[in-house]
Amino acid sequence: MEYKQRADRRRFLIAGAGAGLAAIGAPAVAQSFPFTPNQRYPDPSVQVMDPSFTRYRIYSSTVEQVGSGMRWAEGPVYFPDGGYVLVSDIPNNRIMKFDEKTGAFTVFKSNANYANGNTRDRQGRLVTCEHSVTRRVVRHESMGRVTVLADSFEGKKLNAPNDVVVKSDDSIWFTDPVFGINGEWEGSRAPREQANTNVFRIAPDGKLTAVITDLVNPNGLAFSPDEKKLYVVEWRGTPNRSIWSYDVGADGMSVSNKTKLIDAADQGALDGFRVDRDGNLWCGWGSNGALAPEPVDMNGRKVLQLRGKSEDLDGVMVFNPQGKAIGFIKLPERCANLTFGGPKNNRLYMASCHSLYALYVESHGAT
């Protein structure tokens, strides 16, 4: 079904993927980032840090820029039935769509309540974290209907739902830091009502439970392939950003045995990540913005520089299940989040500042 574009407004139909998610879009209008692909095989941007990573590198696959023109790209999710990726453009308050068949990169949904993390549930429906204004987790049904899954806890509004995953038992797990309400860039400034920044679980019957309450601004999260482990990024870790590992109880709801799996060190920034079938963690990576303690002279000015150079840090860091860094995909922009997609679930889509990048790998997403 097609929808005509009118001069005074655009209407977007959000339909469940099982019913053929569709929307009419317009070209992205924002800053575009120039990109020149590498011509050599293997792509020097795909760096082997441990011999074990060579099995995941495809010799004749290079990093591609498949869409640009965003201001802060986040939360990519792939829909196999339609062959497309949705990715949030948070400051522009919209969700973008990349169509694998046509190569078109268009607006999927405007006025998206500053959508951040997205995922697909077991029925193929889009689940979105609206991390400002509405501050809720929603599910997009057929014919444009939206179901609110969570918007408050214990009578108080959520902070700013950030990232979301769906477990095989149909429960939905999401993080609730404060990024969407602590400024005007990724939403609208608003008072915080929750005492903690929690990791929540929405049961299949709709019951909302705070599963983890002691992390400072939890961010990305994912389960191990067997769902016996839950991994969560702590954005304000002590002393550095970290990924914590938890054992998931036999009840499928409780977690225990909090263990630090990955420490990003004083220069790196962990954000979103995905797990492959072998249990490796493919992590968005870049500078955390930390400044050096002493200024340097630059053209007669004293300037505090970053501790680490963004051009050396931007990309995707790959860790094995034991937390050892085994590979790095160097990108010209900081990668915030990523997902596996493509017909064979072996195309890595990387949401990176202004652009969406893709790379075929000899690995497959766990879900």
From TrEMBL:
UniProt keyword terms in alphabetical order: Hydrolase, Signal
PROSITE patterns: TAT (PS51318)
A GO molecular-function descriptor: hydrolase activity
Domain SMP-30/Gluconolactonase/LRE-like region: 72-353
InterPro entries associated with the record: 6-blade_b-propeller_TolB-like, SGL, SMP-30/CGR1_Lactonase, TAT_signal
N-terminal signal peptide: 1-30
Protein name as catalogued: SMP-30/gluconolactonase/LRE family protein
